[in-house]
Amino acid sequence: MRHLGRGVVLVDVYVDERMRRLELVRSSADVVRVVLLHWTRHVGGAPPPRWTTDDVLSWVNEDGLRANSRKSRLTKLRPFVRWLIVRQELAADPTVDVARILIPDGSPRDLTFSEARALVAVCPDDRARLIVVLMAQLGLRAGDVARIRIEDIDVRSRRLHVRAKGGRGEPTHWVPIPAEAWSALSAWVRAGERASGPLIRSYQRPDRGLQPATVSDLVGVWIQAAGLKEFPWDGRSSHALRHTCVQHMLDAGAGLVDVQHVLGHATIRSTEIYVRREPPGLRAAMEARRYLAA
């Protein structure tokens, strides 16, 4: 244990424990492990009692890191530190005085209707079109799509029970399936002639579903093929389809509470992050009042 470093050993114990409690799936656990092992290297293998706020600040603010990466480091370190305090490996929290990292608003990530149609047009097959339509119409993440099982589809009410990332493998909420998505989905299920198991399956291993990263990468390839990618880090990734769902729902008159339900957010604050454009009718409502004498 001394050879490996106390911090490294504790990282493994921490990640394995969270996996046993079903708080992390394998792919997420691997990411958390890599980030925390990078932290242990940053502090030179020092045991937890020697970790300081200055160590945290220098790691989080490392040169060349974008705001998203800095925030990711801090949000993975903080629960690990709290876990260590409970285990009495740490007496004080070295992250407590580190300010929350805010992500600056970038360019709108949503696609216009014409851009969404252009994306669908370059999809190479029915599976690809179904993936894109599910993400744009239902606001699903790549991981949500990868986790869909055929038995999650409520045929009678045309609803989908979503197994979102916070559900420990179980459905977290349901969303109505619009007619366009229902048509693509039902045709795909009939063609596959399967009554259960993953909805979106691997072509190489038809008994298995796709991994979330694979879904995300495929959508990224199609976005590129549709000519919608302007430059790296422009926000035009698979997650842009979730933003597209939100903005088009709001444009159609949906309220934030409706959007919150579709996205499966626990709080409205999480939903508000997705709102980038001026709500329809806002300017007219603001202009409709006069207080100054003519």
Q: Could you describe the 3D structure shown?
A:
With 294 residues, the protein is mainly alpha-helical. Helices cover 50% and strands 3% of the residues. The chain contains 13 helices and three strands. The chain has helices at residues 6-20, 26-42, 53-60, 67-86, 113-122, 126-138, 142-147, 179-192, 212-225, 240-251, 256-263, 268-272, 282-287, and strands spanning 153-154, 159-162, 173-176. Strands 1-2-3 form a three-stranded antiparallel beta sheet, with no helix packed on it. Strand 1 and strand 2 form a beta hairpin. Helix 2 packs across helix 4 (67-86).
- Described by its quaternary structure, the protein is single chain
Topology, number of strands: 3
Distance between the termini: 81 Å
CATH class of the largest domain equals Mainly Alpha
Q: Bin the strand percentage.
A: under 5%
Could you say what the CATH architecture of the largest domain is? Answer: Orthogonal Bundle
Q: Which superfamily, in CATH terms, is the homologous superfamily of the largest domain?
A: Intergrase catalytic core
Task: Estimate the helix proportion, in percent.
Answer: 40-55%
Unreliable parts? none
CATH-derived topology of the largest domain: hpI Integrase, Chain A
Give me the strand/helix succession.
HHHHHHHEEEHHHHHH
How do the strands of the widest beta sheet line up side by side?
1-2-3
Globular, elongated, flat, extended or rod-shaped: what is the shape? globular
Secondary-structure-derived class = mainly alpha
The biggest sheet amounts to: 3 strands, antiparallel
Number of helices: 13
Mean pLDDT over the full residue set = 87
The count of domains is 2
What Rg do the Cα atoms give? 22 Å
